[in-house]
Request: fold
Amino acid sequence: MASSTSYNPPCAACKFLRRKCILGCVFSPHFPPEEALRFANVHKVFGASNVAKLLNELLPHQRAAAASSLAYEAEARVRDPVHGCTGEISFLQRQVDRLQRELDAANAVLVWFACNDVVSLEAAGRSNVGLGGGGGRFYQIGGLPISYDVPWNDIYNCHGGGMDGSN
Ligand SMILES: [Zn+2]
Reply:
C-alpha cells in the first residue's frame, strides 16, 4: 500500500492537471502545491501547455521571473477581463501624471516665494509661513527657523524669469 519513500505532494500544476509530478517538472519550482489558485489563473488565461513551452524555452534563472509575471498578469486578467494589467498600469500612470503636475505646481509656488520677498506677509501678521527671499530658512509661528536646502537655485534664475518659466 504505502511506500516507504517520502511523499512529495504534486505541484499545483500537476495536481490541477491530475497528472504525476515527475522529478524536474517545469512547473514545480514556481507553482508549489499551496498555490493552486495561482496556477488555476495562469492556466485559465494562458493555458498550461503554452506556459510549459514558454518556461522550457527560457534559461533556468529566468523562469521564476517569467512565472511571477505570468501569475500577476493572469490574476489581473481574471479580476479585470477587459483591461487586465494594462488597466492597473493606466491607473498608476494617471496617478504618476497627477502627482507630477502637483509637484510641478508646488515647485512653481516655491520658486515664486523664493523669487519674491515675502517678508511683507510676515509683517502683515497673517501668515504662519514665510520664506526668505534668498531661501535658507523656514519660519513657523513661535518656532525657531528651520534651515533647508534650496535645490532650485541651481536650476532657476530667480530674477530672470517668472512663475510661467519664461526667461
Ligand atoms: Zn509538477
Observations:
- Residues 100-153 form one domain.
- The first strand starts at residue 130 and ends at 131.
- The pocket of zinc ion is lined by residues 10-11, 13-14, 21, 25, 27-28 (CB under 6 Å).
